[in-house]
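Structure (tokenized):
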């Protein structure tokens, strides 16, 4: 089996687009020590490479991917047994190695990718972390037993709790869970000691399902970390005092900024009321008193970036449905999906630099210019009008990788096939 797989891996990684794209993950894996002889048939680099390739090609089933690999192989034989891949996916040892290598990839991406909040100097060096959950369909071989039938499985599917860096526009980590428990409980039980829940002076953007005043009070007291979310209509609060709203462009749309107390909290909180450009009303709850109310409202609005990441993750990659039923398989698939997204972000950032792309008379720049002109003429939201970052990687980019991953990596290829896509959509 090794003899049949080796030529295929060599063909995939000899001066190809896939090799250049995969290189940061290979470097991250090199920083982890593990016994390579344990994985003699399917090495860890080959396992990750094929996993990421499955994501790029959006193969829902393992049978489909193995058949696709056979077509890529010069021998036209199955280069890899399905059982070998399935066993590797369910391996706790491999899962542990991937868990150790992934933070290195994240650190590289955070150090490489550009800052998205350069127009908000009040933030300083604070981390902006969005937390949200998405749900994944079970594999065809999984037979869940829901709580109403006496089981513990989640009727929505497998929970994927994801940390997302709003400053860089990338996922930071994921926690998988099949048991039917609330999202806030997952945070408390499984993520309390997480690297991304112990960040000093961080600002967390979460939805209303994560409102737990006592928990966030403890985060603020221990790590000086704060949160912002939408105000629940059933939340009991007592107004204390109104705060003055500075006459700044970022505060356009803010009508109320007041200090409040909550029944289950000993600390002061803040209620911000905001009117959108179309007259829609919003109310926010936060325990952050350092930023302008309009800035806080805008940061919450940027949770949209994580929603669009989930769109890419589930619809453009092979992540909408689980590849296996084993907890290790579910976790490995999730991390491989996040790695695929990170590698694509890094690759695109490098191409922007190599191709010396500038904002020209393109589709996205025209749309952005219209937003600015609308703001100047008709009013609107200052920060939203001047936000220039695209939230979602367009489908055209994913198609490029899907059909060109085995082509020779060259400036000519990127200039001819990738540059027009980047100019038009990014």
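Design, position by position:
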């Amino acid at each position: 089996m090794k003899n049949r797989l080796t030529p295929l891996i060599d063909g995939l990684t000899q001066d190809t687009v896939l090799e250049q794209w995969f290189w940061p993950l290979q470097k991250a894996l090199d920083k982890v020590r593990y016994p390579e002889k344990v994985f003699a048939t399917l090495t860890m680099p080959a396992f990750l490479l094929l996993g990421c390739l499955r994501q790029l090609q959006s193969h829902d089933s393992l049978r489909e991917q193995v058949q696709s690999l056979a077509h890529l192989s010069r021998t036209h034989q199955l280069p890899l047994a399905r059982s070998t891949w399935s066993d590797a996916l369910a391996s706790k040892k491999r899962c542990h190695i991937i868990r150790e290598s992934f933070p290195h990839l994240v650190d590289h991406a955070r150090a490489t990718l550009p800052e998205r909040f350069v127009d908000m100097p009040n933030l300083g060096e604070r981390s902006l972390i969005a937390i949200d959950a998405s749900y994944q369909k079970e594999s065809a071989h999984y037979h869940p037993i829901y709580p109403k039938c006496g089981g513990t499985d989640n009727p929505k599917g497998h929970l994927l709790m994801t940390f997302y860096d709003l400053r860089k526009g990338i996922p930071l980590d994921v926690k998988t869970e099949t048991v039917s428990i609330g999202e806030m409980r997952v945070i408390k039980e499984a993520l309390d000691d997480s690297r991304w829940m112990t960040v000093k002076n961080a600002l967390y953007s979460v939805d209303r399902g994560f409102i737990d005043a006592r928990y966030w009070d403890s985060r603020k007291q221990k790590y000086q970390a704060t949160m912002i979310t939408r105000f629940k209509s059933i939340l009991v609060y007592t107004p204390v005092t109104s705060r003055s709203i500075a006459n700044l462009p970022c505060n356009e749309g803010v009508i109320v900024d007041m200090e409040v107390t909550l029944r289950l909290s000993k600390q002061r909180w803040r209620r911000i009321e905001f009117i959108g450009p179309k007259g829609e009303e919003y109310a926010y709850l936060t325990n952050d008193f350092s930023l302008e109310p309009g800035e806080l409202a805008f940061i919450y609005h940027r949770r949209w970036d994580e929603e669009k990441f989930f769109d890419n993750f589930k619809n453009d990659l092979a992540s909408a449905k689980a590849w296996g039923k084993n907890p290790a398989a579910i976790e490995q698939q999730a991390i491989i999906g996040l790695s695929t997204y990170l590698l694509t972000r890094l690759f695109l950032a490098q191409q922007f630099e190599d191709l010396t792309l500038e904002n020209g008379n393109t589709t996205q720049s025209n749309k952005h210019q219209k937003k600015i002109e609308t703001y100047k003429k008709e009013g609107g939201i200052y920060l939203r009008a001047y936000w220039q970052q695209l939230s979602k990687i367009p489908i055209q980019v994913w198609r490029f990788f899907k059909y060109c991953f085995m082509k020779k990596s060259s400036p000519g290829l990127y200039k001819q096939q990738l540059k027009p896509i980047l100019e038009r959509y990014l």
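Reviewer-requested clarification: The chain is about 45% helix and 15% strand. The beta strands are 128-136, 158-165, 170-177, 203-206, 226-230, 237-242, 254-262, 268-275, 281-286.
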